[in-house]
Write a structure and sequence with these properties.
about 500 residues, mainly beta, Lipocalin, Alpha-D-Glucose-1,6-Bisphosphate, Chain A, domain 4
């Protein structure tokens, strides 16, 4: 699998061996030729004889460099921004081409092949939309810009130049931040899967497995997108799958991209079950009589999961794995606090304290901890992925997600006094699988020393006993020092 560096609450360049590399992955094989396109790009152009076009594109290496994830937002003719495409790009050796699997805002899909010309200075592709034929020529970036030309033709007519413009590099702040617009009704049968789920179990072979699954709807609700992170045995966590569920003429289909560079397709069947929804995904491989069948019985708190091999004759090899995934994030603003997850109790609690004085008003320092926008302004600068789910309500979500997916998933607000105190539950990194599934808690107190200066006192409590708890204690004893230091630097220096 190779060595991976994972980022948890490491701020300001402090790297901890926890989470996957959301950026900085090296592209593999023939995909390396696409490296000049990685990053954030923006265009401000006009179609020939048509409306204006503004666009932002983000390309990044994912799944251990086996794929490039590409997201494109556009604004047509001065209208509202929307995400038009979410695509996965791979290199196909047999076709000697880049292959883009595109998932469109309206639920449609498209697969395009892009090939370098003989000069290796341009990518070219051809595709159709109804009776319209489209040709594109994309210049390989030689710096901070690249050319983009589009020709269109209908029927036997000669192609006409419709676009001749440049994309230029842009900062992460150029990426539009949009709210979701609801879900396509064709996806309603699998809506219960939206959320974040976590499991700790063992395969039939005995190997331990920890995994985190995050499922969300596309911004216009035309598809579901999922990311699966996993940790096998005593190995390091890594990004295992990215998937899309899309409506087709024959029902729902799941397209999955794996860290091995594979693309798999599964037929999805969802039916109402006892207390929830049963979702069955059946993956059939070309030339193989054996299918992989995943069954998920979903309820409000989690889902029961079973993976088995099916030979097609009703006879299988039995379950490869059976386990229960626990919901650690969803669409609800708040949910009950599970006291059974906390091991600390009584007055003699294992804890530590950290303190910092910051030249900033108390309202600003409280806001950096108590709102997603405030958190992003302090801890998420310079990252297109970093985000927080902070719902200021008892039981509301309190999740710091530096790569947009993995972090304090499932943690919750326990109590708060505006501008004076905030307490929340907290979990360990996935490298500490046992303590990851349990909870400690953090109390952050704010004291206004003047109108422009605040003292912050952080107390982390509720650690258990034993080797893994010792490691968890040491981990956060270091990490919170960097968090507070980063906060001070960001709020005082900008």
């Amino acid at each position: 699998m190779g060595s991976r560096q994972w980022i948890w609450a490491a701020i300001g360049g402090f790297l901890l061996s926890l989470g996957h590399r959301a950026s900085g992955q090296e592209l593999q094989g023939g995909l390396r030729a696409f490296e000049p396109f990685l990053g954030v790009w923006r265009i401000d152009a006009k179609w020939q004889g048509g409306p204006t076009l503004e666009g932002v594109s983000v390309n990044k290496a994912v799944l251990d460099g086996q794929f490039v994830e590409m997201k494109t937002w556009v604004r047509d003719g001065g209208g509202p921004w929307y995400q038009r495409y979410h695509a996965m790009l791979r290199y196909d050796r047999e076709r000697e081409a880049f292959v883009s699997h595109e998932f469109v805002y309206d639920g449609s899909t498209r697969e395009n092949a892009l090939r370098l010309d003989e000069s290796a200075e341009h990518l070219r592709t051809e595709w159709s939309m109804g009776e319209m034929a489209i040709k594109e020529e994309i210049g390989v970036p030689a710096g901070d810009s690249y050319s983009w030309k589009v020709w269109v033709s209908e029927g036997a007519s000669e192609p006409r130049l419709a676009m001749d413009a440049e994309w230029v590099r842009a900062p992460a702040s150029a990426i539009p931040r949009l709210e979701g617009e609801g879900l396509d009704q064709r996806l309603a049968p699998v809506e219960d899967l939206i959320g974040t789920w976590e499991v700790r179990t063992r395969w039939k072979s005995g190997e331990a497995l920890w995994a985190l699954l995050h499922v969300e709807a596309g911004e216009r609700g035309g598809f579901l997108h999922s990311i699966t992170l996993a940790k096998d045995g005593d190995g390091e966590p890594y990004e295992r799958y990215r998937g899309f569920v899309v409506p087709t003429d024959n029902g729902l289909e799941e397209v999955t991209f794996s860290y091995r560079g594979e693309v798999q397709r599964a037929k999805i069947r969802a039916t109402p079950g006892e207390g929830g929804t049963r979702v069955v995904a059946r993956t059939e491989r070309d030339g193989s009589p054996v299918a992989i069948v995943r069954t998920m019985d979903v309820d409000d708190a989690g889902f029961d999961w079973r993976v088995e091999m099916d030979g097609g004759d009703g006879a299988g090899e039995g379950a490869l794995i059976e386990a229960r995934w626990r919901r650690v994030g969803g669409q609800a603003m708040s949910y009950p606090i599970d006291a059974a997850l906390f091991v600390g109790e009584g007055s003699e609690l294992r804890s530590f304290k950290k303190e910092v004085v910051i030249d900033a008003p108390v309202s600003a320092t409280f806001g950096a901890w108590a709102s997603a926008e405030g958190w992003k302004g302090v801890y998420g600068l310079g990252s297109s992925d970093a985000r927080a789910n902070i719902e200021l309500a008892i039981g509301g979500r309190y999740e710091w997600l530096f790569d947009g997916v993995l972090g304090s998933n499932g943690c919750q607000v326990l109590s708060y006094i505006p501008d004076r105190m905030l307490s929340f539950s907290w979990n360990a990194p996935p490298s500490l699988a046992k303590t990851r599934m349990l909870r400690t808690w953090v109390v952050v107190e704010f004291e206004a020393l003047s109108e422009t200066q605040t003292r912050i006192l952080l107390t982390h409590l509720g650690f258990g006993e034993g080797a893994e708890w010792d490691e968890t204690y040491s981990y956060f004893d270091n990490a919170w020092s960097f968090v507070l230091g980063r906060m001070k630097a960001a709020m005082e220096d900008g």
